[in-house]
Amino acid sequence: MALLLWLGSQLSSYLSNVSILAVFLTVFTLVLDFMKRRRKWSRYPPGPTSLPFIGTMLSVDFQNPHLSFNKLQKKFGNVFNLQNCWTNMVVLNGYKAVKEALVHRSEDFADRPYMPVYEQLGYGSKFPGIVMARYGHVWKELRRFTLSTLRNFGMGKKSLEERVKEEAGFLCSEISSEEGRPFDLRFLVNNAVCNVICTTIYGKRFDYGDETFKKLLHLFEEFLKEETGFLTQLLNVVPTLLHIPGLLQKVFRGQKEFMDFTDMFVHKHMETWNPAYTRDFTDEFLKEMKKGKAAEESGFNYNNLRLVTTDLFGAGTETTSTTLRWAVLYMILHPEIQSKVQAEIDKVIGRERSPTMEDQVSMPYTNAVIHEVQRCGDVVPIGVPHRTYRDTELQGFFIPKGTTIITNLSSVLKDETVWEKPNEFYPEHFLDTNGKFVKPEAFLPFSAGRRVCLGEQLARMELFIFFTTLLQKFTFVLPEDQPRPREDGHFAFISSPHPYLVRAIPR
What residue ranges are annotated as transmembrane (predicted)? Predict the structure, then answer.
C-alpha cells in the first residue's frame, strides 16, 4: 500500500513538472511569436485577424489565392494586409491601386522578396537570375543584356516573325494528322510555342514526337505545381523546415529534374562553343562571361546563365501556350465568335497566304478576341510577388520597406469599374462604337512598370500568328460525345483550362 502511495506521489510530481514545463514553453513561444510579429504601424492597411504562429494563412486558399483575395477585397478594400507566419504581406486589388504601385511608384515596388525555397535550385544573392532577382545593379545589367540580346536575335523583327510563322505551319501539319478525330491539343501547342523560345535560347527546335522534349515539358509543369500550395508557402516563411531529411527531394523533385535538363543544354553549348560564331542567346551569354571580373560582378557567371535561360524558358513558354489553349476553348464554347474571326481572316488574308503582323491593324475583331482571351483567361492571376524597396505610401496607407507585395492582376482584368461585362467572354471590351480596336489601360496581363514581363513582345507576336493561322486552317468544335468543358481555371501559379478534347475540322 505504501509503495502504491509513493508511486502515486511520484507520478503526481512528474505530471506537475510536465505541466509547468508545458506552460513555460507555451508562454515562451507565444512571447517569441509576439516579438517576431509585425509592429503596429500607423496607417498600415487593414486585414483579417492574425493568429499566433500561422498569421493569416488560414484566410487564403492556396489552390485559388486570387479567389480568396477577391473575397477579402470586399471586406477590407483594395489594399489589405496578410501575414504568412512572420512575413508581412500587402495585397493590391483593382486597377487604380495596382497602377499607382507599379507605374507611378515603380521603384518603390520594384524589389523581389527573399524566397528560401529557390536556393535549392541555385538562386541566391550572387546568382539571382532575372525574374526573382532583387532590385539593384545586377538585375539591371542582366535585364538590359537580355532585352538587347533578344532583340538582336529577332524579337520584334521580321526574322523572328518568320520563325513563328514556320512553327505555326508545323503545328497545323500535326493537327491535320489527327484527321478530325477528338484529341487534346495541349502538348502540340506547348511544343510549338516552346520551340520558338528554344531556338532563340539554345539554337534548337524539337520534333513533336521527341520523347526527351515531352519529358522536359512535363517536368516544367511539375515545376509550376511545386511553386504553389500551402507547404511551399510555409517553407518560405519557416525555412528551418527545409532541413528536414528527405523533404526537399519529395517536395521539389520536378524542379530539380528540370534544372538538370537546363544544365545538360548549357554543358552541350559550352562543349561546342565557338566565340567567333554566335548561334543563340546562350552563346552570347558565354561571350559576356569571358569579359573578366567586371562582367562577373554584373552577374555574368555560369550559375546565372542556367538561371536566366530557365527564366526565359518559363516566360516564353507556359503563359503563351496556356493562353492559346484558352483561345481554342473559348472558340468551341462560342462558335458565333469563331465564325466572325474566320470571316475577318478570309476577308483580309484569305485561306492561302500566311498571316503576318502587318495584318493585325486591319483585323480589329480578331485582335479584340485575342485580347479578350487574355483578359478572361486570366493566365497569371496574382503575378510574381514584389517587395517594397523603401518605405512608401499607397492609397493613403503606409507600407514599410521589405514588405512582400501581391498584385492581384485578376482583380484588375475583371475590375467592375472598368469592364462592362467583367465575368463574361465579351470581345467588345476592346472595340469602340465604330468597330475599331481599343485597349483599355486596365489591360495588364503582363503586369506593368519596371518588372513588366520580359517576353511580352514575343508573346503578342506568337498569340496573333498562331491563333490566326489555326482559325485560318481549321474550325474547332466540341466532340459530340464530350460534355461541355469547364470554364473555370486550374491554378498552379498559372491558371490553365481543365483538360478538354477538341475536333479540328479542315476549312
Answer: 14-35
